[in-house]
């Protein structure tokens, strides 16, 4: 099967792209709504306990920790594992993949991104190049190519095609919105998809959410159930990649700040944003949705989204940053030599 990965941090606004491959017709149309907040560098300083919570201060002069023997399952979210098993149980999924992913699809997506972006290198935007190389080194993965694309919608996404080097696209508005540490965390989130080999299912999910589709011979009810399962898996996969972002950021406030800025941030007022207040907002959402009616509304709201709600992702990052699992990974890590 062709291997094509398209991971969107939050969906970009762009013109529709229609094409036909065999008996399969696509109309890929990215929505203009950027509500799908999506994912996230520094070393750890002292660790202390305050009000029963473990907190780590950040030492900006310290070299980041590197996970030289890191395996994807070391940080994969339980919901990712669970939903992956459910997808594998769906009969005929590989056949659908062969129908969707063909040479035409790959070439359109490849040329669309390469032809409208700047390739980052040591001689072109060297600071961004260094961020990507370092993030890939921390996660023990081969660095993909990195492109910067002009767009007013903050976004980042990943494309991997069989036989070709994968690459990450970031939008200029995202570069303007985030600090350098936050921007590297976003790159780490995208690297998480490659590290975890989210592969073909990620492409399915993105094609289903980016536009209309027609699968020949597949009933409407079956197609709807398949779409629901894929989108449920995609939301879980995003939680895994938020953990990859934290492993590179090594500071939960950096990772959470990305989500906060994508939810309601702007460059001119970025210095007034407060991560602790955003976490309080996440806790208030949990409380407000704990009633039977709140639970129903929360689930109805969640089903419409390809990414988990930003406040819930922030809470997940906060909780995992204080978990024994995360601390164990930090203990196994070694300091990066510069």
Automatic annotation (TrEMBL):
Binds 1 zinc ion per subunit. One of its GO terms (molecular function) is metal ion binding. Residues 127-320 form the Peptidase M48 domain. Its cofactor is Zn(2+). GO terms for biological process: proteolysis. InterPro entries: Peptidase_M48. It holds the Pfam family Peptidase_M48. Keywords: Hydrolase, Metal-binding, Metalloprotease, Protease, Zinc. Belongs to the peptidase M48 family. This is Peptidase M48 domain-containing protein. It comes from Gossypium darwinii. The lineage of its organism: Eukaryota, Viridiplantae, Streptophyta, Embryophyta, Tracheophyta.
